Amino acid sequence: THMMLPLLLLLLATANGLVQLDYTPELASTELEGWVTTSTFTLKQPRCIFRDHRTAVIWLVVAVPEAVSNFNNSVEPGTPERAFQEFPNNTFAYMTLNTTFLNYPCPESTEEDITVLRVGSETSCIKDEMRPTCNGPLPSPGPYQVKFLALEGSEPVAETRWSEAITLRTAQQPSSLSVTGSGHSASMIAITTILSILFAMLLAGLLAMLVFWSSDACGSSSTFSKPELASVRRYNTHHVYDQPAARL
Questions:
Q1: Is the pTM for the entire model greater than 0.70?
Q2: Which of 73, 38, 245 is nearest to 160 (CA)?
Q3: What are the two backbone dihedrals, phi and then psi, of residue 36, each rounded to the nearest 5 degrees?
Q4: InterPro entries in the record, alphabetically (predicted)?
Q5: Confidence check: pLDDT of 223 > 70
Q6: Which range is least confidently modeled, 21-30, 84-93, 153-162?
Q7: What pLDDT, in 10s, does the model give residues 119-139?
Q8: Which residues contact 155 (CB under 8 A, 6 or more apart)?
Q9: Topology of domain 17-169, per CATH?
Q10: Rounded CA gap, 82 and 87, in Å?
């Protein structure tokens, strides 16, 4: 029975004109910084996958695992049933990151291309109901599953397989953080404090010595008396008049 179900779904999709593509979305390389965070994850771009659907609009579908088995491709993006703002309380899936084949071209990649998609990177439209296709931060660690769906107008024409479950990182509570090495940290703080006090005492002593030397130098210079100015007495000169010659 489990072997027949995927085949039955494939035949049903083909009968409805929906092409099942041999591609499974994958997370980007773990060497990429921040490839999974507490509210985002990074996917490889589906390069060259939709080459037979160049005029279609390609959407990324993000869903909780419970919605995968009976996902309805006919529900259009932008409706309340596919709005980011309603996820995951009132809807189990939303659609975002719409683009065309021009952004997923062949060849698959070059060294100059940035061939990844950051899911959950928009913060300005989290509560904006006018942006139901917002690529907003994921509301919980998940898990989530994703697939790419191509639409011609409102008609689904091609889809990829669903990804494996993607679980985000979980922020640790402060109480759960390891306290190993806390004694070492306390001893380092104590040593740093003692060194700071000793440095302050040394600096104070140096300043005191400088003040003492300065005051001593000033006192020594004050013992030298200034040379007294020579007193100059003023003499009133008396005019000496020639006495008339003694008369003989």
A1: no
A2: 73
A3: -140, 130
A4: Uroplakin-3 (IPR024831)
A5: no
A6: 21-30
A7: 999 999 999 999 999 999 999
A8: 17
A9: Immunoglobulin-like (2.60.40)
A10: 8
